[in-house]
Amino acid sequence: MINATESEEREYLEEIKEKLTLAIRRVDDAVKQFSDELRQKKQYIHEHQSGMDEADMVAAGQSINRMAFTGEGAVARKRRLLKLGQSPYFGRLDFAPPGQGSTPVYIGVYSFFEEQQRQNLIYDWRAPISSMFYDFELGAAAYTTPSGTIEGTIERKRQYKIRDGRLEFLLDSAVNIHDDVLQQELAKSSDDKMKNIVATIQRDQNAVIRNETAPVMIIQGVAGSGKTSIALHRIAFLLYRYRETIRAKDVLIISPNKVFADYISNVLPELGEEHIPELGMEELAADLLGNRYRFQTFFEQVSALLERPDPAFIERIRFKSSAEFLSKLNQYLLHVENHYFTAAELRVGGTVVPRQLLLDKFKAYHRVPILKRFALIADDVRAFVRDAVRRKLTGREKAAIGEGIPRMLKFNQVLDFYRDFYRWVGQPRLLRLDHPLQLEYADVFALIYLHLRLEGLASYDHVKHLLVDEMQDYTPVQYAVLSRLFHCRKTILGDVSQTVNPYSASSAETIERVFPQAEVVKLYRSYRSTVEITAFAQRITPNPHLIPLDRHGPAPAVVGYNSPGEELTALRQLIADFKSSGQHSLGLICKTLAQAEHAQEALQAPGVYLLTEESTAFKEGVIITTAHLAKGLEFDAVVVPFASAQTYTTEVDRSMLYVACTRAMHQLTLTYVGELTPILAG
Ligand SMILES: Nc1ncnc2c1ncn2[C@@H]1O[C@H](COP(=O)(O)OP(=O)(O)OP(=O)(O)O)[C@@H](O)[C@H]1O
Question: Is residue 225 part of an annotated ligand binding site?
């Protein structure tokens, strides 16, 4: 058996590191050579410019670009090799095909192909053979390659922790991923950015990451089940698997806000992939609507619900977030198609264009959005009139046609159709348009949907994979828009229990109605929080299916104070305790922005940051923010201040409290004055 003992492994590690160092040197030499050649080439062009024609210049430019491109490739390769030098591999499996001896397969974040021996010394975790590391225990195993399935036996599985080039431990395991290693990973203090989990991906997670068949994959997973992590690893996997056709810039992440985007921005580069473009829903909306409308943001909608819940406002949101609303919009569009075009005879000079001709044309173009159809019909009508009069048409005649046809449709503006829709469903009071025109958030995507259907909008065909996080926050109409704009494969993930607006929350089932071809995966194991914190959060929103990982810590503390002054003193103390605790991040998570601002003012201290809707980066230290913004993030310790009966009463408040508490990895404290919120007392 190769490298059986620990000392052999240590020796082997040194050997690998040496080979990596050599490989880095070779890249350096190559880079140097490239830049020398590049310089020479540029010099040459400079000197011979006068004697070169345009074609020569283009050719020279291209060759420079090619060299620079190869140079960039070399720089990226060097970056990967340096990273491997720090931690070359984390796993090993000894795999024996039938009737053959076993060879060790070392698995790392990237692959390392040693050019001199022409041998793959480290396999990328995404390589087909590496899948067995996540999927099998000792004994019979198999993996699938593009050319077929390979069966055999796993004779050994080993896990390593190598940091800064030093082997910290090595562990033989019979099971798939040794629980101790996972426990160690989870017990660590949080970083300011999300990290990769390649060394401890679980079997069910691996199945999601490596799924190649689902056109739409919907992941509904409990808080802390690794949804976001898995989705990012899935992107990394797909970029590897389809590296010939998909590049990082062809993927798009729809993310809830800039802070979240910053928080996850580290994972893919850590996995050797470039940064992935991301876009917020509001940015997408602004992109689509141009500057035709001003509209409320999702944050503003949720703040309004938290600060002054108005039943009429809630009713409007509820209606527009239902699957029924989408089907009513579709019925309305059919109604428009069938009843709103009133064809009438059109007189152009002395020629009469018969009503039937106009109607036939209108129907013939039924695949073209209605407001785009007139131009096509007008072309045909012009041809018809030209044939009749046997001459070119005058400007006046052309105008008569161009203006006459649109007049046959009841409305020509999308907003007029949208207003009319509410009359048609018999609910005119469900539309509130403020003056000057400002749309409520719930109307934004409904209106975009009508624009799409009535006028058509350019689709995002350059995007080859779409990732939607926090899926519960988007409504059926939003999904209908996404489905029409993005024709690529999609990964959609979230958790209904973590909605910040229960009146507009979508479950996996709701979303599946928009994407009937979707594969739905549910994840119930929760990795983030200790058993104690998870049990506490379950009191707020129970989920009988949730399985917490068996990791323990202090019980959450709920502490009442006599006055706001006392509560603030206690919060100051909690911050001081945190600073001397060795933990990295503390989240003070409030219900509203007003409370967060108040806390920030009262608790001002160095290293205490207020995170708002406008923030763009997630920092380590003490963060004061709202539950809405904290969604998707995690902290070593969380403090939920002002947890009184006054603050947390409604269903929206319950969601906020749940989101806030489930952000904690190791420690959770709630403070209040007066009466404790009934959500916890009950
Ligand atoms: N297989 C794993 N190995 C190590 N850590 C893991 C694993 N799966 C998840 N985690 C950790 O669990 C935590 C939660 O993961 P993540 O944020 O991806 O979950 P989520 O389901 O998106 O959470 P939420 O919906 O509550 O925001 C992270 O710290 C992540 O690193």
Answer: yes
